[in-house]
């Protein structure tokens, strides 16, 4: 994610913690407490790459549209350096490597902390769906507290390391509603959590740097986009995600017009 807290942002380094918010600790990176997995189990997962290196995750929405985090693209990278790899367990080989024709970040991203941390990407050529490339539906409502969820990605495994795991990782988590996440149960406080956010938390498990933009899935639908958090698997600090149900209309509209 930008994470940490920053935003587990693009692994290439867009660190955008909002002002007057929690000061970020040193970025730490990895899917914490997860296991190696295969793309056939999570065929919507993609690797968003810059200049040949994994930068962020994302999810297949349609043959030509990818959903990711706004902070992954907020530095305004040139289209020529961006690629999307779909259909591979490994970010650096296999599957289909596609050029990017256009992208759009939410117009309100950056106006209210990390709220509205969502973006869409249009590929230069449509994907061909298969057992390893499939779209995932967008949530119509946020899941309840403690609902089972899973996050996937290729985030780094060592704090401060630039070495990425080549194989896709997955971690099982529990949903924490925005209301609960902002309560005294956890450490963020209401000022740091905005509308359009949802959290997940399981002790010793988390998404992290390099996982930004990737999918939080619950009940077989996309419920969150990896956004930010305080540390990686820090006690009482859930991972924070863009709430897909709250942002669904924006994604649907811009997927048609980008």
From TrEMBL:
Span of the signal peptide: 1-16
Domain of life according to the entry: Eukaryota
Subcellular location: Secreted
Any one GO BP annotation for this protein: proteolysis
Keyword Hydrolase tagged: yes
Keywords, ordered alphabetically: Disulfide bond, Hydrolase, Protease, Secreted, Serine protease, Signal, Zymogen
Single annotated GO MF: serine-type endopeptidase activity
Pfam families the UniProt entry points to: Trypsin
GO cellular component, one term: extracellular region
Every Peptidase S1 domain range: 31-256
Recorded family membership: Belongs to the peptidase S1 family.
Protein name: Trypsin alpha-4
